[in-house]
Amino acid sequence: MIGVQAGLPPRARAAEAQVALAVLLAAFSAVAFAELPPLVEVPRPQLQGVEPAVEQQLTEVRGRLEELRARPDVDPRELGARFAEMGQIYLVYDLTDAAAAALENASRLQPGEHRWPYLLGTLHEHDRRLADAAHWYEAAKAANPTYLPTLLRLGDVRLLEGDPVTARALYQQALALAPDDAYTHAALGRAAARERRHAEAARHFERALELDPQATSLHYPAAQAYRAAGEEEAMRRHLDSSGSGRVRFADPVAEEVQRQVRGAGAELLLARMAMREGAVDVAETRVRRALELDPTNPSAYNNLAVVLEATGRTDEAVEAYSEAARLDPDSVGRRFTLARLLERLGRDEEAAGHLRQVLRLAPDFAEGRTELARILTRQGRLEEAALEYREVLAADARATTTRFELVEVLERLGAAAEARRELELVLEGAPRFAPAQFKMGSVLAEAGDYAGAIERFERAADIDPDLVEAHQNLAILHGRRGDFAAAARHQERAIDLGPETAEARLTLATARILGGELEAARRGLEEALALHPSDPRIADTLARVLAAAPDDAVRDGAAAAEIASKLLEAAPSAQHAETLAMALAELGRYAEAAKLQERVVAGIESSGGEAPGLLDGARRRLEQYRRGEPARAPWLER
Amino acid sequence: MRDGSRVRLGGVAALLACLLSSTSVAENGPFPFTDVTEEVGLRFRHFNGMSGRLYYPEVVGSGGALFDYDGDGDLDVYLVQGGMLGPDRTIADAIFPPEEPLPLRDRLYRNELIAPGGRGGRLRFTDVTAASGIDAQEYGMGVAAGDYDNDGHVDLYVTNFGPNQLWRNRGDGTFEDVTQQAGVGDPRWSVSASFVDYDGDGFLDLAVANYLDYSYGVHKACLTERGERDYCLPNAYRPALHRLYRNQGDGTFRDVSVAAGWGEARGNGLGIATADFDGDGDLDIYVANDLMPNFLWINQGDGTFVDEGLMRGAALDANGKALASMGIDAGDFDRDGDLDLFMTHFTRETNTLYVNDGQGFFHDGTEEAGLGTPSWIHTGFGTGFLDYDLDGWLDLLVVNGFVTFPPGVDRSENAYPLDEPNQLFRNLGGGRFRDVSAEAGPAFTVSAVSRGAAFGDVDNDGDTDVLLTNNNGPARLLRGEADTTRPWVGLRVTGGAGLPRDLLGAEVTVRFPGAPTLVRLVRSDGSYASANDPRVVVALGEAGAGIGEVEVEVKWPGGKREVFTAVPVRRYTTLIAGEGKASP
């Protein structure tokens, strides 16, 4: 059978069989080569939608090849060079089947050349056809045993095939050629890890990271190697530094292929693919090449801006977006993107200017108008903002978030009734819009309609269970209505959702105390004090519960006295003195309690007695201590 | 740009392969599974509600459950249904109109294998949705099964794109929606959930893997590099918060996510598996995150968890890359007595096998196991360890289906070209697997957009059957065709009268003279959006030939061990906590 050779891997044999079929078919087309090896038919890719520069390039390269093939005594090496040229061009445009066939022909016509089998290896490796990839890499290695990428990629394939020993040997050969190559060390690390030689693996990963600190993804396998080697500290150090930066090696053959790109559009396509893979530097190189090919390409400037923005070079990104907008002045999208970036940079005035231009081009562009309204709101130009919002709503009455933003602007303008009407419209169209339910809750609470507000806040919390503020407000409103159990429940939920604050803990404690859940209040306050040991309000409240709770199981006079003494010492005040007096009374030390309480009363009196209830209570407790009675539930007196 | 000649060349190559090698593909079986969907009367077609706007949820659901809702000893089927997507879309806008009666709802099918009164019936499914009282009309994603109220009847937690629902099994063939009073109606976009008694108080708690903060309001139009409309990848949206609900024992749950340490941990959660991964007795929780590091929540024994995924080597692949994790399962594939993890991933990633070192530390053993290359071109979802050939080694089944459009496909001819065939991997022993899909018969040549897979013995014959759920396609039931004359032991582990439910998270070890290490996990979670048969089937392998009974050691959740002797072979036995002999 023509073309089928012994010793090839299965897929290569299938490819050979395919070649045989193609050659048989080709024989009927009466194209014959003198003393040429059997060649594979190179499929003609469909070129619909391909940019003209690329189409022309593909047509030209095919034309040059056909012209050469038509010669009666073609030199096989020259023909090989043409197939190689074509294969590389197909490869760079991801026309993989055609690339594979062309490169295979090039390999046959130039048997001592390593580059074409190498590229075939990469093509098969990309699709994980490991046997085929290994076959071509072996051929490349035989042709040039010192090309580092061949050794590394072949090693990678062997490792994937489950042969770390051969992989390691290949990596060692690579190391001999380039002792300071980061990828080689990383590869040796992987092979060593596979063979459970963890200390060796860690050493290689360390070296790779030393050579290429940007390759932060290596920290993770390094950490695993250290962990397996029992070095926990080193493991943690590497875990903390773990990132997504990849390790790479220089590959002149592949880079030469990349240079074949002739179309700015193709460069941009490859740039976007590189971006998606996280290779931002590759993307930038490609975008800049696209600009070299077509310096007035607005899309290239736009892509450049994306790359620059992704790498934090925002001022340069603004320039690139501006250039894209200048080159394509009718593009709404480019100018809008520029405006958004300017907004993010706090350059609202410039952003607004661009948005106005956008709206001149596309008056119905709701997103642009909404953005302009937001800027105007931030600038305090509320009337203008309201007008813009209304224009958006005139075009699309269902624009829920826009209407909701209008509500907030109207509130700030003091147009409460109008704001409420708009809010009702929002809720009519989007009853599951949690911020609107929350807002309506706030409006109703403000108007004293606690029952209505509770209903709205509960709906908001149902829709968005992470809405801490809804639970906090529910706690407050239930508390105001005397439903302390419900208040405590919601405050617990608010605490569960965080953030952790002393105020939240105090609110919960208050709800529990007022609801008579004194044991729970005590436990909660103890927990709160452990979390906020320097907060005097928590300590004081706990001390009072311990000193004066009307529940024998909850009170602990000694503990109360200890807390209150420390408090008074650290922050002398009538409040803290009174707490200590309660604790002393609870311990039966009424004389001391009364003496201290006298000072409390005097203190309140001298401060002007601005809180008569407070003074009355203090006097009442003084009388109790003088009578030899402890204080009980003083919070109920207020 | 994609080579337009690819299809033609593939065709020629396939033709040539057939001409050259007519014996390489088994044509007549016997095959390990038979698709019995039609003959058992399981008629269900998933509706994804796509209308051309490429809403994200339409490619994510849905799953199903194998569970014994009526307590008659055979596995019934629950299938999760989708719905119309889009605030202003109606069924009339659907590209693929629904084939199920409207309104669309999840469906419950009763298995008639065991007829009323315990008499023999036949494997046949009857749609009992209406009689069951289950009226689940949210856009469904997945389902978890467990007896949360310890009344001996398995309840269901249905995850939705919308509020989740808890359906309490009343024990009389009907269910009631107790979501509100139980406090578990998480409105986030949930996919997989697990009933797990993490605090050891005897009541099943509930762990919910949520996916993305996604709503119609934030829906984005994503493009490929070539500028074609496509479904977005998860990094287009904010990851969701996962939820942990503690069962308070009175029919209510408390959301303890923050207190347990899950508060700020956002992840694109799709799969969930629970087990005692670090061997300290209490149950840990693994969450498979899509394109983010996975979480391995190690139970600290005090009601809190710490994510030790990175430290324990189970969060990223061997190269330190976060993969698009979807489905998951835990099992002792290498027979060393600990639980390893397997999870499925996106195309141009490999599925990943994390091998446990016995201390709860893992390494990525995918390539060594031969599981990398066969999964490279696929997008895997539901998966499970199962011993399909009853040789004593846990094999793997993976269901596949793309989530983004393959390049170069003409969408004017096929509006939803995400279909792929599923895969079966045989455990060869020695830590290696082989992709045997090509030899596994028609069940593995069908191309579909598969998502869920639930594993269980629906015909009670001792091998594992598989319920497959396909997005925008029919659910399928694959009957296992293993040679059940090989020795196997079927086990159900329960708490007896005091705790009449399956003790999820228990581990059983089967022993007999000359036995290898045979450890199996009692679980209903794992896979993807699905719930499995909590019973375990342990094949004894060649060493078990001629063995009539075995000894079984059970490690109960919490870590206590008990030994049961004289457990008969080739039948199911219920092991009840406290009725064995305590073991050190």
Overview features:
heterodimer, A: 638 residues, mainly alpha, elongated, disordered N terminus, B: 584 residues, mainly beta, four-stranded antiparallel beta sheet, 3 helices, 36% strand, globular
Q: Would you spell out the secondary-structure blueprint of this structure?
A:
The complex is a heterodimer of chains A (638) and B (584).
Chain A (H helix, E strand, L loop, with lengths): L9 H19 L23 H18 L6 H17 L3 H14 L5 H12 L3 H14 L4 H13 L3 H14 L4 H13 L3 H14 L7 H10 L3 H10 L10 H7 L5 H13 L3 H14 L4 H13 L3 H14 L4 H13 L3 H14 L4 H13 L3 H14 L4 H13 L3 H14 L4 H13 L3 H14 L4 H13 L3 H14 L4 H13 L3 H14 L4 H13 L8 H14 L3 H13 L3 H17 L5 H15 L12
Chain B lengths: L5 H15 L12 E3 L28 E4 L8 E4 L27 E5 L13 E3 L1 H4 L6 E8 L8 E15 L5 E3 L1 H4 L7 E7 L8 E6 L1 E2 L8 E2 L5 E2 L7 E4 L1 E5 L5 E3 L10 E2 L1 E7 L8 E6 L5 E5 L5 E3 L20 E4 L8 E4 L8 E5 L5 E3 L15 E7 L8 E6 L19 E2 L1 E7 L2 E4 L11 E2 L1 E7 L8 E6 L5 E5 L7 E8 L3 E4 L4 E5 L6 E4 L14 E4 L9 E7 L5 E8 L3 E5 L4 E3 L1
Parallel strand pairs in B: 35-42
Antiparallel strand pairs in B: 1-34, 2-3, 3-4, 4-5, 6-7, 7-8, 9-10, 10-15, 11-14, 12-13, 14-17, 15-16, 18-19, 19-20, 20-21, 22-23, 23-24, 24-25, 26-27, 27-29, 28-31, 29-30, 32-33, 33-34, 35-36, 35-39, 37-38, 37-40, 40-41, 41-43
